[in-house]
Structure formats: C-alpha cells, structure tokens
Specification:
Strand content: 25-35%
Number of helices: 10
Distance between the termini: 16 Å
Structural class: alpha/beta
Helix content: 25-40%
Radius of gyration: 20 Å
Order of helices and strands: EEEEEEEHEHEHEHEHEHEHEEEEHHHEEE
C-alpha cells in the first residue's frame, strides 16, 4: 500500500497490544497516536496490532550492507521496515577507523533526511573496533586497543547510542568511562574478559552484545562471561534466529536477565534470496537460513524481526511477551519513551499482523508500508 500523509488522522480497529494488555477497540493516529479506546480482551484474535519492532543490532538486509554507505543503508532500512521494524541502530563492523568514520557520516545523513518507507535510523551501534582480536567471530581483523580519543572523534560524526567493547582491551577503563559519560549504552561482547571483571561491570549496569556468542561460555566451575551475565546483567541482547542460540538457552537467559531483548544481527542476506553478499570486507553466503563465512563461521544472521517474533512464540513465549522483547525493552534500553509501545502520545509506530504473525502493514510515524510476503 502506498504511503499516506501522516498529517491526516487515520484509525485502526481490531485487537491492540497496549502496555496494560490486549484491548479490542480503536486506535487513531497521525504522526503520533492521538486516541486509543477499547475493552480488555483475554484471548486476542487476529489481526493483531503490536508496537513497531526496535532492532538495536543490524548490519544490513535486503541485499544491502550498511558499511557500503548511504544508499545501501537506506535500502536495508526499507527492507527491514517491510518486516515490521520501525526503528533501528545501524551497526558497524570492525574496520579501519577511517571506514567506520565514513559509515557514521552516512548514518548522520540518513538521520537528518529520512526517506519514505525506511525504518527510522536512531543512530549507530558501534560494534568494534574496540574488541578482542582473538574473539572476532565474523568481524574483520581490524580490532584495536581501547582509545577514548578515537571514540570521541567518531562520536562527533553521528550519535553512537550503543557500543560493544571487550573490557580487556580497555584495561584502565578509560574508554568505557568516556562512553558512559557520553550517554552511550555500553555492552560487553567479542570478549575473553575474566569472570570477576565482567561481573563487576554488569553490576555497574553494562549490557551484553549477542549473549552466548563470541564470549567465554558457562561451565559450573568456570562461569566465564556468560555465567557473569546470567548472574548479574540487568539487560542483554540475544539473536533470536534459533541458530545462534538454542531455544532452551534463550529460555534460560529469559529467566535470568530481566531486560533480555531480541535483535537480528542481520547482515545483507536478511530478507533476500540465498546467495553471496558482503559484510564489511568479508564475503558471506546465505544458505539454509543462515549467513556464513567460507569456513562456516556464522556471519551475522538472515533474521528479520517478524521471524524473530514467530520464533519466540514457537519456543513458548506469549505473543504479548515476545512483542515486548522486540519493541518495549529495546526502546527502554535507549531511554526512548516515545517508541516501543502503543499509547496515546507515543509515536505512531506499529505493525499489523495476521493470524500467522506475518506482517500485513508497518506504520512508521503514521506512514504506512506494505508488509513483505512470507
């Protein structure tokens, strides 16, 4: 369906997920939600209206790699919008500093001049270069030691909202302190950090980047970074493709970490056919629902947020909880009260789903985007 003028009030009637639960009623909206009324309903029936998904870790999609600049960043934002994502953080990969700077410049342009049909780009997730060179996963080999001056120079180019850091490359904590002082949500990832320091940092309210992946695992006498996160972290992201993390490991994290939220970690092949794509300087292949390097290493994911919703429901979460972990909780991670919820005065960012939880339409700031057929 073509985009419509967000200034014209529009309404939707049906089963609506609000912060207080499901209602059967009516939602009126322009750029924001201007009215909401209805009666509570115990068992929701389709079509469902849920808050727009907020993806805090996405490298690309629809065949486009965000490291390639403005045009591909916009193409990825359009692709994810068709799958229910209304806002995202464009996520870098580890690269020479000048390449990261160029991507941040592109992010700033897209933020200043958003295009039709694009998920809103809220800033950057800086994943690298301040990570452990011995725990790269699929990150290109350009990791560097923590350097507050380099961070400050990068932060002048575009808002860095989330940053992934391996604490062991920042032994005196100066980088983490600088990022925290700048209002960045710092997360531990791509790390071999020892358990004691990780536990202390989680108690200081640092988060976790793609929990379980690219970090030391849990063993009962050597809890590692994963054990520290499960014991002490208040918030963590997890890739909900059921490939990076097994279902029961997701459920265990859900019991342990109150603010667990889903991300895609999507690379260019998400929402695109099987084939060969780019992830920064790497060539990656999409096949059998996964993105991999030539040696088989997982390289981001082929996940979209609507599929993440279906996956979470399939492993036992209720639809309302699954939606909350893909919308309200990531919005809260950014301190963004205007997104991630359907309530009067909030942004008109929501997703219309059919009975199979496929996207019929995405509404972004009151403008409608047709869903992607599944």
């Amino acid at each position: 369906m073509a985009a419509e003028d967000a200034a014209d009030p529009t309404e939707f009637r049906g089963t609506i997920l609000t912060p207080q639960g499901w209602i059967a009623g009516r939602l009126r909206y322009g750029e924001t939600i201007t009215g909401l009324d209805g009666s509570p309903i115990g068992t929701p029936t389709p079509p469902f209206l849920v808050p727009g998904f907020v993806d805090l870790h996405v490298h690309g999609g629809g065949g486009a790699d965000m490291m390639a600049g403005e045009a591909e960043l916009r193409a990825a934002a359009r692709a994810h919008a068709r799958h229910g994502t209304t806002a995202l953080l464009a996520t870098t990969v580890t690269a020479p500093v000048e390449e990261i700077a160029a991507v941040l410049d592109a992010i700033a342009i897209v933020m200043e001049r958003p295009g039709a049909g694009e998920a809103a780009v809220l800033g950057a997730h800086l994943e690298g270069p301040f990570i452990n060179p011995h725990k790269l996963g699929a990150q290109p080999p350009h990791a560097i030691p923590g350097d507050p001056a380099i961070f400050a120079a990068l932060a002048e180019r575009a808002p860095i909202r989330v940053a992934t850091v391996a604490p062991e490359v920042d032994p005196d904590g100066a980088l983490i302190d600088a990022m925290t002082a700048a209002g960045v949500a710092v997360q531990i990832g791509h790390s071999l950090c020892d358990h004691a320091r990780a536990a202390a940092l989680f108690r200081a309210r640092l988060g976790v980047t793609h929990l379980y992946n690219a970090m030391t695992p849990l063993a009962h006498r050597a809890p590692g970074l994963v054990g520290a996160a499960l014991a002490h972290a208040e918030t963590a992201e997890i890739i909900a493709d059921l490939i990076h993390v097994a279902p029961d490991a997701i459920l265990a994290a859900r019991r342990a970490i109150p603010g667990l939220y889903g991300v895609t970690d999507a690379s260019a092949g998400a929402g695109a056919p099987d084939g060969t794509y780019r992830l920064g300087r790497h060539e990656v292949v999409k096949a059998e629902g996964a993105m991999r390097l030539a040696d088989g290493t997982l390289a981001g994911s082929a996940l979209t947020m609507d599929q993440a919703l279906r996956n979470l429901v399939a492993i036992g979460l209720s639809l309302d909880e699954a939606a909350r972990r893909l919308s309200a909780l990531p919005a809260e991670r950014l301190g963004d009260a205007a997104r991630g919820r359907i309530a009067a005065g909030a942004r008109a960012d929501f997703v219309l789903l059919d009975g199979d939880l496929s996207v019929l339409e995405t509404v972004i700031g009151g403008r409608r985007v047709a869903g992607e057929p599944t």
